[in-house]
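Example S7 (structure tokens).
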């Protein structure tokens, strides 16, 4: 019996231990990138810097969080990214509005006692049940008005209205509790809670889901339209979208983003600039293809399309036609597509649902509805791509999931990725800078999904070189008197650019060699008291066990000559 108890307490302790261990794991959809793999990440980023540099691009580093409104306005409120996937939060100084925060929590979590009767006016008994909510919400109003006046919560018209409505609402509510039924009182409580929930205590910020909008914000903020145009920028870093994680799709993922922005000078002939824009589009696409080729990415396919511009004789007219056709086949579509007929009919073309494919193929095509200028621009993009020897595949269904695009859209896929095989997406977005409050500006850019590029490289056999991470040389020092020499040798060798491992404490000879082997070192430098006294150091090649004697300079010379590439 005792034994069983002992075992079960052991099992309990083990479970507790496991629960403890499970507590701290990377959050779903995020990953740790460890050495060896990070070697590959660095190479992918370094190659981007080199290739983009040759095309005249400069690096821009931007904040990870920005106002939510920046993305809502540019990407579009009906897109999946903005409607479902943003990590947004209210930004306020907790210490300044502590009591207000507590009163809001008290109001939102307030529940009445589960009392019948459900029908008819409740009479005097109701006061006892619902009166407390009156004072809870009264606190929100009192503290809220005070914080509003002091500017500790945003002084927006919405907050002003909500506080006034709450003040009135609470008076009406308390005055008529007795004459309402239980159900009616509960309904009134929910109405008041709803108003409390809408109060904004701070600016809404979010983790950036992409960076095109941020680049445009920075372009405006730093008056980049006054620089030589176009301004060519790239930005490398993490993005955040609350998507369902799967292979190649993460909640924190990394993009290598490229943008070309060009202020529109007044009185320029719009038709003339079509040819120039098309050349810029083609060069940007050429650059990413050159980059992928340099990386050795396999199975690369470029899809292009033109989605025209927002005018009745172009995309807007087409969308109306598309909508009308979609209405006719509505019953055969899935729930997502049916919803999109209203919110964003173009996105129906993006559907991967097997049952919708035959229907979509019969829908009107945007290419047949482009205005003359957009058609001319698209033809010129294709001619420019041909001139540059860039192979492409025209895909009339390529509409992209963000609202700011016009004319050129493109996407690149690669091997080894399964369903999430887009490694790059981009397009033209003239007008976005203006939409964000800047001067009329043209824009074209793309973002590469770095996680997916790495995944594709790994899946197609581009493993990072383990040896690049291993030390070249392991210093096996023995005897306290040799430590000073060992430290100096390590410093000089590292300064000369060699990877050196210096064990922090003295080790037995066999242990030192074993450790050097485990780390994958190529050489062991043996430093004993004899070596230090004679100035002749012993270098052992670990692969074949051969040894040689070198002076300090001689060693340096030898390593330089045999430096691994
Ligand atoms: P996007 O198509 O939303 O475009 O994303 C570009 C690329 O980022 C995708 O093709 C994919 O490789 C990668 N990506 C997107 N979401 C995830 C995820 N959850 N996990 C892993 N990788 C992902 C944009 O973001 C635009 N800002 C591109 C752009 C720049 N257009 C003009 N300039």
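Recovered sequence:
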């Amino acid at each position: 019996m005792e034994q069983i108890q002992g075992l079960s307490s052991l099992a309990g302790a083990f479970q507790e231990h496991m629960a403890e261990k499970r507590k701290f794991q990377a959050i779903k959809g995020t990953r740790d990138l460890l050495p060896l793999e990070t070697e590959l990440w660095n190479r992918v980023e370094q190659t981007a810097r080199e290739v983009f540099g040759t095309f005249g691009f400069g690096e821009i580093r931007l904040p990870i969080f920005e106002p939510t409104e920046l993305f809502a306005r540019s990407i579009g409120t009906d897109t999946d990214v903005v409607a479902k996937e943003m990590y947004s939060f209210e930004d306020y100084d907790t210490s300044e509005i502590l009591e207000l925060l507590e009163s809001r929590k008290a109001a939102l979590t307030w529940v009445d006692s589960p009392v019948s009767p459900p029908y008819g006016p409740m009479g005097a008994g109701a006061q006892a049940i619902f009166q407390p909510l009156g004072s809870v919400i009264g606190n929100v109003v009192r503290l809220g008005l005070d914080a509003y006046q002091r500017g500790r919560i945003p002084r927006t018209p919405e907050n002003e209205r909500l506080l006034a409505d709450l003040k009135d609402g609470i008076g009406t509510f308390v005055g008529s509790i007795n004459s309402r039924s239980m159900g009616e009182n509960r309904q009134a409580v929910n109405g008041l809670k709803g108003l409390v929930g809408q109060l904004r205590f701070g600016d809404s910020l979010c983790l950036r889901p992409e960076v095109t909008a941020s680049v445009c914000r920075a372009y405006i903020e730093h008056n980049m339209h006054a620089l030589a145009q176009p301004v060519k920028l790239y930005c490398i870093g993490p993005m955040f979208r609350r998507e369902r994680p799967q292979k190649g799709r993460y909640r924190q993922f990394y993009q290598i983003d490229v943008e070309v922005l060009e202020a529109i000078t007044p009185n320029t002939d719009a038709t003339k600039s079509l040819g120039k824009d098309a050349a810029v589009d083609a060069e940007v696409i050429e650059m990413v293809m050159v980059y992928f080729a340099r990386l050795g990415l396999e199975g690369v396919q470029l899809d292009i399309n033109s989605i025209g511009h927002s005018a009745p004789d172009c995309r807007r007219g087409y969308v109306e036609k598309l909508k009308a056709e979609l209405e006719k086949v509505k019953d055969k579509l899935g729930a997502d597509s049916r919803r999109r007929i209203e919110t964003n009919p173009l996105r129906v073309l993006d559907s991967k649902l097997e049952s919708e494919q035959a229907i979509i193929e019969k829908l009107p095509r945007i290419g047949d509805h482009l205005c003359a200028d957009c058609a001319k621009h698209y033809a010129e993009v294709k001619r420019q791509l041909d001139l540059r020897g860039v192979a492409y595949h025209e895909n009339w269904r390529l509409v992209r999931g963000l609202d700011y695009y016009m004319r050129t859209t493109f996407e690149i896929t690669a091997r080894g990725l399964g369903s999430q095989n887009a490694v790059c997406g981009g397009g033209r977005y003239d007008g976005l800078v203006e939409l964000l409050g800047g001067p009329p500006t043209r824009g074209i850019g793309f973002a590469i999904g770095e996680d997916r590029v790495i995944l594709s490289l790994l899946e197609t056999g581009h493993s990072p070189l383990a040896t690049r991470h291993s030390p070249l040389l392991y210093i096996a020092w023995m005897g306290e008197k040799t430590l000073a020499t060992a430290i100096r040798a390590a410093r000089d060798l590292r300064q000369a650019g060699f990877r050196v491992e210096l064990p922090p404490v003295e080790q037995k000879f066999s242990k030192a060699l074993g450790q050097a082997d485990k780390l994958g070192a190529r050489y062991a430098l043996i430093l004993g008291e004899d070596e230090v006294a004679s100035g002749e150091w012993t270098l052992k090649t670990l692969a074949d066990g051969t040894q040689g004697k070198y002076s300090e300079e001689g060693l340096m010379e030898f390593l330089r000559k045999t430096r691994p590439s």
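Notes on this example. Residues 60 and 316 are 35 Å apart (CA to CA).
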